[in-house]
């Protein structure tokens, strides 16, 4: 009987190119997944910019006076903080700013503005962390301790009055108004000094809801 010398199992060398193919496909699939995840993460930010900066604000009802941000870019004011160190409004970019301008003496009208700004911010609830209060002091008069206590948590910057006057749009004195600056540094809204707090809060709520920045 003739003996069969062929091996029972035949070993075939795998095609190396075929082994590489699934890895390439996996890499492409991984890239696509990363791009999709990135798109999902960026969607709220893109939508926010589009809603607020592309769709014209005239389609909304605002209590405050809308300002053309392109006409009033945030300048360097050469400000000094309460610690005597140089400071600028640009230090607070990335947050919504509710700002007032007044003398360090802070008369009764000024005190009301300080209290109103604090009250409005508090009524925003959890969104209040997105809003900072700023007081531009336009002289060298000292701030009384009682006023400093009222303004606790507010950023107080001393600036030259001519720098403020050259920047802020005001029918009269800048101290007659409250101003809102968005997280990109755009001056966007102006309010009377005796503002209706309910309507001011409503405006801020709209802004914070429409935008995910800041």
What is the CATH class name of the largest domain?
Alpha Beta
- Helix percent reads 25-40%
The helix tally amounts to 5
Provide the succession of SSEs: HEEEEHEHEHEEH
Number of domains: 2
Q: What's the CATH architecture of the largest domain?
A: 3-Layer(aba) Sandwich
Tell me the strand percentage band.
Answer: 15-25%
**Overall form:** elongated
- Oligomer class: single chain
CATH topology of the largest domain: Glutaredoxin
Roughly what is the average pLDDT, rounded to an integer? Answer: 83
Amino-to-carboxy terminus distance: 91 Å
Low-pLDDT runs of 5+ residues are 16-20, 42-59
Classification by helices and strands: alpha+beta
What is the topological layout?
Blueprint: H1 16-54, E1 65-66, E2 79-81, E3 86-87, E4 96-102, H2 108-123, E5 131-137, H3 145-150, E6 155-158, H4 161-167, E7 177-181, E8 187-192, H5 197-210
Parallel strand pairs: 4-5, 5-6
Antiparallel strand pairs: 1-8, 2-3, 2-6, 4-7, 7-8
Helix pairs in contact: 2-5
């Amino acid at each position: 009987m003739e003996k069969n010398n062929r091996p029972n199992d035949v070993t075939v060398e795998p095609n190396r190119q075929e082994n590489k193919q699934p890895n390439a496909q996996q890499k492409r699939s991984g890239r696509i997944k990363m791009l999709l995840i990135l798109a999902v993460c960026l969607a709220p930010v893109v939508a926010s910019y589009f809603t607020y900066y592309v769709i014209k604000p005239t389609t909304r009802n605002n209590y405050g006076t809308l300002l053309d941000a392109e006409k009033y870019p945030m300048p360097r004011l050469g400000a000094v903080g309460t610690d005597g160190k140089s400071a600028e409004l640009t230090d607070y970019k990335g947050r919504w700013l509710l700002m007032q301008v007044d003398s360090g003496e802070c008369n009764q009208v000024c005190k009301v503005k300080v209290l109103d700004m604090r009250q409005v911010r508090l009524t925003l609830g959890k969104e209040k962390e997105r809003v900072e209060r700023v007081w531009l002091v336009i002289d060298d008069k000292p701030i009384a301790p009682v006023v400093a206590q009222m303004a606790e948590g507010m950023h107080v910057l001393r600036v030259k009055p001519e720098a403020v006057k050259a920047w802020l749009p005001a029918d009269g004195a800048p101290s007659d108004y409250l101003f809102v600056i968005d997280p990109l540094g755009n001056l966007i809204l102006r309010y009377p000094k005796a503002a209706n707090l309910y309507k001011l809060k409503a405006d801020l709520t709209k802004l914070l809801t429409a935008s995910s920045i800041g």
